[in-house]
## 1
Amino acid sequence: MKDIAKRFEQNPLLSPSDIPASREGLEITCLLNPGVFQFEGKTWMILRVAERPKQKEGIISFPILTETGAIEIIEIFTDDPDLDASDARIINYRGVDYLTTLSHLRLVRTDDGVHFYEPENYPSLVGEGILETFGIEDCRVVLLDGTYYLTFTSVSPNGVGVGLRTTTDWKNFTKHGMILPPHNKDCAIFEEKINGLFYALHRPSSVDLGGNYIWLTSSPDGLHWGNHHCLIKVRKGLWDSKRVGAGAAPIKTEKGWLSIYHGANFDHRYCLGAFLMDLEDPSKVIARTIDPIMVPTAEYELTGFFGHVVFTNGHIVHPDGDTVTVYYGASDEFVCGADFSLKEIFSLLNFD
Ligand code: MAN
C-alpha cells in the first residue's frame, strides 16, 4: 500500500493544550478536522474544538447545549449498568445516544502555513437552537462570488444533519439553518458553479438498503438542493468498506474535479483516497484510487483520542498547480499538515 503524503515535520501543528477552553469548567479534549480558506491574504482554519469537563474518577461527564444556548453538564457513573461507553466518541445511556464532547468552531490563522494563532476580535461559532444542542463539527469552507459558504455537521438528539452559514467578513454570519436533514454530513460545495448551478458532495446514511455513500446534489441558489445522485460507494474487503465521505471542495484540474475523500473500514480505521469527476457533468465518476493515498501510520495518527484516523475537510492548492497542502485531523485529537502532489495522486487513479 502506497502512502504518498509528505507529512510536516512540525506535526502535530495544533494540540488541545494550544488554545484556551471556551469557558471555565471545560477543557479541550480534541482539536480536529479544520476547514481551510484564504482571507485577507492569509491562510485560515476553522477548527473543530471538542470540549468536556475535566473527568473525575468513576464518572463520565459531558456538556450539552440547551435550546437557549446555556450549557448543561450531564454526569453518569461509569459502573451504571445502563451505560455503554465502549466508543470514546459516543455513549449510549438508557437507550439514548450522546456525544462525549461538545464541539464548536474556532478561527486560527497563519503566516507560514505551519504556525497557527487565534486572531483578535473574531467570534467563535457555536451550536444554536434545537438542531445543534450536541454542537457543530467538521466545517468545510468555500468562497463563491465573494461569499464564504460554511457547511458543517449539526448534531442533536434529532439527528446529524448539514448546517449552512455564510459570511463575507468572518465577523457577521447569516444562518440558513439545516440544508440537508439527518442523517447527513461531510457536505463539500464546489468552488465554482457549473452551467449556472451550485454543486455539492454530501453523505447521507441509509440504515436499511444502501449505506454510507457519497452523493452529489445541485442547487440554483446554494440553499435549496435537489437532483441527487449516488456517486461513490463503499467497497467490500477494501480500506473503504464501511463508510466514505468527501473531504474539502473538489479541486478543479484539466482532467476533471478531483475529490480527496475519507474511507473507513469495519475497524474504524480512517484513510484518505481520491476520485475524479467529469468537469461538465460531475455526476460522471471517471476514476478512483484503489489503494488509499494516506494511511494512519505516525504515532499521533495512531494513539490519540480515537486512534487510527486521518480525516480531512480542508486544503490549499498552491500556485505551482501541483502541490496541495492537506490539513487533517489525526486520531480525532490533533491538527496536522501534509503535502501531496496532484501528479502523484493522478498516477494512482484507476480509470477502468
Ligand atoms: C461520529 C464521529 C464523532 C461525531 C459524531 C457526530 O460518531 O464522527 O466524532 O461527533 O459522529 O457527528
## 2
Amino acid sequence: MARIYAFANQKGGVGKTTTAVNLSAYLAAAGKRVLLVDADPQANATSSLGIDGSILPYCLYDPIINRKPLAEVIISTAHANLELAPSAPALAGAEVELVSMFAREHQLRKMLEPVIAAFDHILLDCPPSLGLLTVNALTAARDGVIVPIQCEYLALEGLGRLWQTIQLVREHLNPRVSISGMVLTMFDPRTNLSMQVVNEVRKHFPEQTFRTIIPRNVRLSEAPSYGQTILAYAPTSTGAAAYAALAQELLAREGAA
Ligand code: ATP
Ligand code: MG
C-alpha cells in the first residue's frame, strides 16, 4: 500500500511544488514507484515535468468530477518509476463543482483507492489555499501532511490556520492526518533571518522538522522552465543534493516507523 502525503501550505510560493516534484524524482530514482498528483489548477507540477496539461485529453478534473478511473488519466514521465496525474486549468472548475457534490471531501481519496497498491508513494501537490481541493488532499493523505516553510519573514504566519484545518479534517474526515513533516526551503546562509526561521521552526516542531534544509539555489528555479526535475537538469547542484538527502531522510523515517 502506498504511503500518501499531501504537500500543503496555504501560503503561496513557499516551495510546495518544487518539493513535491523533486522529492518524487529522487524517490523514483531510489526505486520507489511514485505517483505525483497535481491537485493545483495552476498545474505547476505538471509543467515542471515538461507536460502541458491543457493539451492532454484528461486531467485530475475528470476523476474528481466525472468519476473517470484515475488509471486512465495517469501518464508516464521522463523518469522511470515516476507517473503523474496531471492538472490543467479545467481543475479550477472542480473547486466550484465540488461544493454541491455528495461526499465532496472524499473524492480524491476514493479516486486513489484503485491505484494505491500500484505505488509505493503518492505525493499530492496542493494549491495555495485551504479550499476543497486542499481539503480533499488532506482527507486522502493517510500518512500525513508535509509542510514546506520558506526561510523568510512571516514564514510561520498562517500556520495556525493550516493547523486548525488539519485538526478539523482529522476529527471529521481522516483520523490519520497530522503534520508528519516540515521542510525548510529557500534557506540563505548569508542572512540571519533564514537561521532565525530554522531555529523557530525546529523549536516548535522538533519531531516533524526534517534535518535536511533546502538551500536557495538558482538551478532549482531554472529547472521547471526546462520542464525538468533537478535530478535531470542539474544533478550536481546544491539543490539536487538537498532533495536527494530529503528523499533519503524520508525513507529512513518510514523505515523506522
Ligand atoms: P504555489 O503556492 O503558487 O503553488 P509553491 O508553494 O508550490 O507555490 P514553488 O512553485 O515550489 O512554490 O516555488 C515558488 C518559486 O520559488 C518558484 O519559482 C520556484 O522555482 C522557486 N523556488 C522554490 N524553491 C526554491 C529554492 N530552494 N531555491 C530557489 N528557488 C526556489
Ligand atoms: Mg505550487
